[in-house]
Amino acid sequence: MKIRPFAALMGTLQASLWAGAGVNFEINFGRPLVLTLGFGPGFFFAGHGKNLGYPLEMRSSIELAYRFRSQSRLGLQFYHLSNGSMSQRNPGTEALVLFYAIPI
Q1: Secondary structure of 22-76 in HEC code, one letter for each residue
Q2: Rounded distance, CA 46 to CA 81, Å?
Q3: Tag placement on the chain: N or C end, fewer CB within 10 Å?
Q4: 26 — phi, psi (to 5°)?
Q5: Cα(first)–Cα(last) distance of the chain, in Å?
Q6: Largest alpha-carbon pair distance within the chain?
Q7: Cα 64 to Cα 79: distance, rounded to the nearest angstrom
Q8: Are the C-beta atoms of residues 55 and 66 closer than 8 Å to each other?
């Protein structure tokens, strides 16, 4: 298992933004398959999208990816944003993402 930091900026077509950082835990299954669990706090701006109830939102994720020889990855990720009941309103939101990642 490898522990790696991450930083992310996510946006929607409704001008919602989430920016944060955290930790990913990578577990290798065989040579090309990687399971990654992640967690990190971030700041959320609703824009014209869903009001998540609080500016501080936690992101938890799980992903399964195929790692190419170039170290790039193609995978599927599920993540959840929630304020952890830090406010009375905590609707949270989820997303399923198909991604291609290139290491920098």
Answers
A1: EEEEEEEECCCEEEEEEEEEEEEECCCCCCCCCCEEEEEEEEEEEECCCCCEEEE
A2: 12
A3: C
A4: -100, 130
A5: 20
A6: 47
A7: 12
A8: no
Say which residue the tokens 């490898």 belong to.
Answer: 2
* Two structure tokens written together for 1: 């298992």
The SS3 assignment for 16 reads: coil
Quick: pLDDT tens for 37-86: 999 999 999 999 999 999 999 999 999 999 999 999 999 999 999 999 98
Task: Tell me the domains of the chain and their CATH numbers.
Answer: 2-101 (2.40.160.20)
Give the predicted TM-score (pTM) of the model: 0.88
Q: State the CB neighbour count (10 A cutoff) for residue 16.
A: 19
